[in-house]
Specification:
The protein is an alpha/beta fold. The chain has helices spanning 39-42, 48-51, 56-63, 121-128, 138-146, 150-166, 182-193, 215-230, 251-263, 280-286, 300-307, 317-323, 330-335, 356-367, 371-385, 412-415, and strands at residues 2-13, 26-36, 79-85, 94-105, 107-109, 169-172, 174-175, 199-204, 236-241, 267-272, 291-294, 312-315, 340-342, 402-405, 422-424. Helix 6 packs across helix 7 (182-193), helix 7 (182-193) crosses helix 8 and helix 14 (356-367) packs across helix 15 (371-385). Bound molecules: N-(iminomethyl)-L-glutamic acid and zinc ion. InterPro entries: Amidohydro-rel (IPR006680), HutI (IPR005920), Metal-dep_hydrolase_composite (IPR011059), Metal_Hydrolase (IPR032466).
């Protein structure tokens, strides 16, 4: 067992109020000790998805130490074993001095669509010239994705994951949803599973071109043969619930998708309230979804339902930034006591960014979250949205996913927007 002392930390955000000041559990002039490959000995959850039996390949690797995951995320089973003042730090086998910088838990990006081919730059430009977004452009990404080789999709996915990691992301969820046939959805989930245990089956993204006018038939496919093939490769199921859209799914169809997914052993997530108010948020709460995402158009009833639930509201400000929609009312959610997460929604249509720091800056500037609320939502909030207790925090036993900021305080994430301050810390090599 090798221990690593990380020191020279001006401000350590633990997200554990028992360890430091405030909700962020901040320790100043801090150090942290990590045991490499310590999960078995630490006796903590090795990986919620692996325990759920949905990530067995990676779990077997975890028993042998480091996980068989490419340079993406998550990368290791290294664990935090000590946190405190640098002056009181115990000796360790190796020392990393971050030279007077802030350290935060690596970001937990709980909503992305990274498995796709092509881009939609022309659609974005048209939107900036006044067009509105209605989900219709998804079909062009479906066509490009179906036509791409597995190697091309794998390379694109790896590049996007590496891009996210280079900006401080430690855990990433990836959805299917640009295949929309049994074979294509299965292919996307297999590829996503190569880089993360947090995979989501989104066969109910939109009604594909060959099923236009026959949405119920497509729902039968999604809830039948497609789910049967895809469920073994997914931890979650998701649906784009948007009754006002000709492309997405109404409340009854969404309920059918979620119930079928639950019966197949998957956890639930919902795209809800993106294009207009609808039943998605309350449906997600009713069915015990881990998260309802977007919330661009929330009603008072939605907020009240969330406030009395364990469902996380995941806000995706990159979408509003690149569609021109109004930003969600984050303050109404926070003031009602709703648990809020921030995620990128990285996808070629509505939010082609892998940058959690950008989302934090937008949340502070455009959604009136404090810098502390935004950082919490991008770390601990994302972990809650994935029902994980091993990430999004840097308490004892947590996974040692450390992100270093080239700044003295987490406030700089929103104070210095667009500046590449955040990077995940390599503990080995
Ligand atoms: N709204 C549905 N899905 C994506 C957009 C996908 C696309 O436009 O390609 C989202 O989360 O915004
Ligand atoms: Zn999405």
């Amino acid at each position: 067992m090798v221990s690593v002392l990380v020191t020279g930390i001006t401000e350590l955000v633990t997200n554990d109020p028992a360890l430091g000041a405030g909700r962020l559990g901040i320790v100043r002039d801090a150090a942290i000790v990590v045991e490499l490959g310590a999960s078995a000995e630490a006796g903590t959850a090795s990986d919620a998805s692996a325990e759920a039996g949905t990530d067995t390949g990676a779990s077997a690797e975890a028993q042998r130490g480091r996980r068989a995951v490419p340079d993406g995320v998550p990368a290791s089973d290294d664990r935090v074993t000590w946190v405190g003042l640098a002056a009181a730090a115990p000796p360790a086998d190796r020392v990393i001095d971050v030279g007077g910088r802030a350290v935060v838990p690596s970001f937990v990006d709980s909503h992305t669509h990274l498995a796709f081919a092509g881009d939609r730059a022309a659609e974005f430009a048209a939107r900036m010239a006044g067009e509105s977004y209605d989900g219709g452009g998804i079909a062009s990404t479906v066509a490009a994705t179906r036509g791409a080789s597995a190697e091309a999709l794998r390379a694109r996915l790896a590049a996007l994951v590496a891009e996210a990691r280079a900006q401080g992301t430690g855990t990433i969820e990836i959805k299917s949803g640009y295949g929309l046939t049994v074979a294509d959805e299965l292919r996307l989930l297999r590829l996503a599973r190569e880089v993360t245990g947090e995979t989501t089956f989104l066969g109910a993204h939109v009604v594909p071109p060959e099923y236009v006018g026959r949405a119920d038939d497509y729902v039968d496919l999604v809830t039948g043969p497609m789910l049967a093939e895809c469920a073994p490769h997914a931890r979650w199921i998701d649906v784009f619930c948007e009754p006002g859209s000709p492309h997405a799914f109404d409340g009854d169809q969404s309920r059918a998708v979620l119930l079928a997914g639950r019966a197949a052993g998957l956890g639930l997530r919902v795209h809800a309230g993106q294009l207009g108010p609808g039943p998605g948020v309350r449906l997600g709460v009713e069915l015990g979804a881990a998260a309802v995402d977007h919330g661009t158009h929330l009603t008072r009833e939605d907020v009240d339902a969330l406030a009395g639930s364990t469902t996380v509201a995941t806000l995706l400000p990159g979408v509003e930034f690149s569609t021109g929609s109004p930003y969600p009312d984050a303050r109404a959610l926070l003031d009602a006591g709703v648990r809020v997460a921030l995620a990128t929604d990285c996808n070629p249509g509505t939010s082609f960014t892998s940058s959690m720091p950008l989302c934090i800056a937008l949340a502070v500037r455009e959604m009136h979250m404090t810098p502390a609320e935004a950082l919490w939502a991008a770390t601990a909030g994302g972990a809650l949205a994935l029902r994980r207790d091993d990430v999004g925090r840097l308490g004892i036993g947590a996974r040692a996913d450390l992100t270093v900021l080239d700044a003295s305080s987490h406030v700089h994430l929103s104070y210095r927007p667009g500046v590449p301050l955040a990077r995940t810390l390599a503990l080995t090599g």
